[in-house]
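Q: I'm writing up a methods section and want to include an example of the input and output format. Could you take the sequence below and give the corresponding predicted structure tokens, formatted cleanly so I can copy it straight into the document?
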Amino acid sequence: MKARILYPLTILLVVILSFPTLAQPGDKREDIESMKIAFLTRRLNLTPEEAKKFWPVYNQFSEELKSVRETRNKAGRDVKDNFQQMTDKEIEKVVDGDISYRQQELDILKKYNAQFKQTLPMRKVALLYRAEEDFKKELLERIKERREQKRGGPRPR
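A: Here is the clean output for your methods example:
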């Protein structure tokens, strides 16, 4: 009985302590992150020892990806605003830059894949990648449903 109570409390404690700040009310990005943590926690079924090792590594992984993606998105917004006025040479530079960002993301994934394999059994590492994709799909579905509710039903095709 004691183990049944301690296990969930340990997981919750590790998750909370692994994040430097808690979500602010109304902060959608933080809400999504909280949903993702809960989703991954359920899917991976981490032991307290695995969770203690995994979450700090995963948080570093997420921060590095976030940094690259923010830079990529800023570059994309700049291009979107000026695309029609850009020369072919400037567009070529943008395309090459986009490929460079994708390579950076891949390099981060490779780096952390090795670390994930040191903190989790291989089966759970594989589940992690699948769970991340499933979370994205579920999140997109929720967004789609909310948009449809705001519009009063599904859009005609």
